[in-house]
Amino acid sequence: MTQTPGAEARRVLIISHFAREEAIEASLNVIRMLDERGIVPVLEDDSQCELLENDAQPLPESVQLLTIDCEIGDCELVIVLGGDGTILRGVEIARPGDVPVLGVNLGHVGFLAESERDSLIAVIESVAAREYDVEERLAIDIFVEDEQGVQKTGWALNEASIEKGNRERMLDVVIDIDGEPLSSFGCDGVLLSTPTGSTAYSFSAGGPVVWPQVEAMLVVPVSAHALFAKPLVVAPDSVIGLEIHPRDGSAAVVWCDGRRSLELPSGTRITGTRSKQPVKLARLHQAPFTTRLVKKFQLPIVGWRGPR
Length: 308
Description:
Belongs to the NAD kinase family. By secondary structure, the protein is of the alpha+beta class. It contains six helices and 20 strands. Helix 1 packs parallel to helix 4. The longest helix is centred in the N-terminal third of the chain and has 16 residues, at 21-36.
């Protein structure tokens, strides 16, 4: 059943990593399944070109192009087919329209994904029946101001990673929380992470795993040269400040979710706060976060007998 797009049309944006054959195949399947259920598939313009180059069959006539036939705010949902990196790209595209993102894992761990590739039919059935919940995840806003007063802003779902700009030098930083100085040290970098990002870069840097339901922000030093440079968990409404000390003109950079960067000259001050706009993730399953941890990290649970 193909629905003629109109004011009441349901639109779903499909985002994938089209450099991979399995991603192309999965995307084509999703497009056709949505079309059969009367939902308008939406693609980015370059995505349509890549799909047409790799598939002999024409796309359904109902397919629309983002920013040409519709805007992101016209979409009900964004379905992302890929790993966590592709899902973060989907979140970036969905955020201006405040649209929820549903990830289907085609990568390795896929911690942000809600389902696996072999569940594609069930995923589309749930979307068609509107049988999904929307979960709001805390995001971090980043505010940067250098010594000349130049200001820049950014945001992150997983983490803002402040990193040294010169490989051969350390980064000298001073950290303050809620306007009170806490500690200074040399390091390779500092992560300002969310609970969602606690299983990503923060986890690799020695930070704690934080359940998504916990409202908090994390400060995780990377390779710090100091006795008191352990990961910190602060209140969700705290203001995290970080100043880069001038050191022979050394500079730094902040990466937001590894996708968007801001240059940080020496003497720059970085402020991290809870974003007023959370990120929306669509959920099909209500499995506990513990179950997700065990499955994604393949944790050993042999010998567990359960509560009496």
